[in-house]
Amino acid sequence: MKWHVFVDGQVIDLPDPPAHSIEQVEPGVYSILYQGRSFEASMTHTPEGLAAGVNGRTFLVDVVDPRNYSARENAAASTGRQELKSPMPGKIVRLLVALGEDVHAGQGLVVVEAMKMQNEMKASRDGKVTRISVSAGDTVSAGDILVILE
What we know:
This protein is mainly beta. The chain has one helix at about 70-75; strands at about 5, 10-15, 20-25, 30-35, 35-45, 50-55, 55-65, 80-85, 90-95, 100-105, 110-115, 115-120, 125-130, 140, 145-150.
């Protein structure tokens, strides 16, 4: 699974969650052990988003877990480029669209099998298929891009 971590507007892609230890010391204060170093972080909600204070510096932080979908992500998907991502690890059973095909909201794009269940991934809006990143039989991880609509 790939994690997308946003720090001060810059994206950091982590292929796997990093090895670490995080303990909540008190509400909003965390003790972090990462790569043999110890940090204390204080988390506060600001009008700009979540802010982390570490070693006298403050960073705006946003961690996106592909297994969780928020209203903000769904709203962003209504315009512009839409990346259909696998919500879980699985196997591509079949593709339901072709490159360049026009699709409508709710139309099935790809079928992913996970835990012996087949899940049809659907378009959240009208668009045109501009990229297909998988083929039938491929194994995918949570967060892998399957299809891109424009």
